[in-house]
């Protein structure tokens, strides 16, 4: 029996309703298993299988309080799932790497719901909007493009309250500093080899690979309905000089926007007034996710969950039972909904926190079987 062991994506809708996407251990197996939990139903669990790896997950509750889920694959497949009903599938033409219609743009990275519009972001400045059955580029002529010195951009997390107030994390990929041998250098290399001076010939070849070492850089962009504008260029905390890549964005309201990323970077502000880097000295952890639980900020790093008081990270207590994750947590996402904090862990499942203690969400074993045959009575 092929056990599903990895949680790839998740979203919570209320204290009793969430969706989680699992996949198998085999990296060549791209199938995903989309589980939906509705705690107010007699049989709360449902499952939908799709033959793709899911990289974007968003959705909403409909007028009857039932979840409507939009799962987007890395290849640009969009699956609309209503628990208990037939799912729908459509394809973003041109997106992906291995799809028959792929045009070299690359993988999809994320999906989010802004108003009733789904925004889907990916590599090489891909940003699409889906409304009903219509899919199109999101103001393609106005999308950010790679400036001089950078090869391409990858659009990541997108968060927005309206289609005139939307934030997006962007990764800037630098151009390769390596170059090929010139004709003169090739001639010199051949002469050195003929003379048996192999080490000098190798040194000459290696010298073309030298140059300024550059790493991926992050930017926070904002869309105001007319244009995209860079509103923050994060560093690895204000105490570190190397660039940082952003991982998550949280919009409390139009005046209070947060972003976190690699090497401890924490940004706070808004597009109108600007952002402050409120990182602190000594914090170089990779921060993966941020949410607000009641009146406190919660941040998930690579290794733990933390409270953040605006100045420093402290452990979120009570801590999770170390037996749950074998003392090696792998945080995927934290999300507060009402009075419940959800914690989704890539390898160790789903936990909820009510402010006093943690409760594990037990996923029925039959839902974790590759050949799903339905729920036991």
Instruction: Give the radius of gyration.
Output: 23 Å
The span between the termini is 21 Å
Strands ordered across the widest β-sheet: 1-2-3-4
Low-confidence stretches: none
Query: Residue-averaged pLDDT, rounded?
Result: 88
Strand content: over 45%
Helix/strand class: mainly beta
- How many runs of DSSP E, i.e. beta strands? 28
Explained architecture:
With 377 residues, the protein is mainly beta. The chain has a domain at 178-211. 7% of the residues lie in helices and 47% in strands. It has 3 helices and 28 strands. The chain has helices at residues 183-194, 198-207, 322-325, and strands at residues 4-14, 17-24, 32-38, 45-50, 54-61, 67-73, 77-81, 88-91, 108-114, 117-122, 126-131, 134-137, 150-162, 165-174, 217-223, 228-232, 246-253, 256-261, 266-270, 274-277, 287-293, 296-301, 305-308, 313-315, 331-337, 340-345, 349-353, 358-360. The strands form 7 sheets. The protein has a 4-stranded antiparallel sheet, with no helix packed on it. Strands 5-6-7-8 form a 4-stranded antiparallel sheet, with no helix packed on it. Strands 9-10-11-12 form a 4-stranded antiparallel sheet, with no helix packed on it. Helix 1 packs antiparallel against helix 2. The longest helix has 12 residues, at 183-194. The protein is globular. The model has no long low-confidence stretch (mean pLDDT 88).
Short description:
This protein is mainly beta and 377 residues long. Helix content is 7%, strand content 47%. It has three helices and 28 strands.
């Amino acid at each position: 029996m092929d056990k599903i062991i990895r949680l790839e994506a998740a979203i919570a809708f209320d204290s009793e309703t969430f969706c989680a996407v699992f996949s198998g251990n085999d990296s060549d197996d791209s199938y995903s298993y989309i589980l939906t939990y509705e705690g107010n139903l007699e049989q709360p669990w449902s499952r939908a299988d799709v033959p793709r790896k899911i990289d974007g997950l968003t959705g909403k509750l409909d007028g009857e309080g039932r979840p409507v889920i939009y799962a987007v694959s890395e290849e640009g497949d969009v699956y609309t799932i209503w628990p208990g009903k037939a799912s729908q599938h459509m394809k973003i033409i041109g997106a992906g790497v291995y799809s028959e219609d792929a045009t070299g743009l690359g993988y999809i990275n994320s999906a989010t719901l802004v108003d009733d519009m789904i925004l889907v972001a990916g590599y090489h400045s891909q940003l699409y909007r889906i409304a009903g059955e219509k899919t199109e580029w999101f103001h393609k002529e106005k999308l950010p493009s790679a400036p001089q010195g950078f090869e391409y951009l990858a659009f990541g997390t997108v968060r927005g309250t309206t289609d005139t107030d939307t934030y997006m994390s962007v990764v800037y990929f630098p151009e390769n500093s390596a170059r090929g041998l010139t004709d003169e250098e090739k001639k010199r290399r051949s002469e050195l080899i003929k003379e048996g001076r192999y080490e000098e010939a190798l040194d000459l070849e290696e010298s073309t690979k030298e140059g300024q070492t550059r790493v991926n850089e992050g930017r926070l962009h904002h869309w105001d309905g007319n244009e995209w504008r860079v509103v923050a260029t994060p560093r690895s905390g204000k105490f570190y000089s190397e660039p940082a890549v952003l991982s998550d964005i949280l919009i409390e309201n139009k005046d209070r926007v947060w972003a976190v990323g690699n090497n401890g970077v924490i940004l706070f502000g808004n597009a109108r007034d600007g952002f402050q880097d409120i990182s602190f000295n000594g914090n170089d952890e990779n921060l993966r996710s941020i949410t607000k639980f009641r009146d406190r900020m919660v941040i998930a790093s690579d290794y733990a969950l933390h409270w953040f008081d605006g100045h420093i990270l402290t452990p979120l207590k009570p801590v999770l039972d170390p037996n749950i994750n074998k003392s090696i947590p792998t945080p995927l996402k934290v999300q507060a909904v009402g009075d419940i904090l959800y914690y989704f862990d890539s390898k160790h499942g789903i936990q909820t926190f009510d402010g006093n203690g943690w409760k594990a969400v037990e996923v029925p074993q039959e839902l974790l079987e590759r050949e799903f045959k339905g729920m036991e009575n």
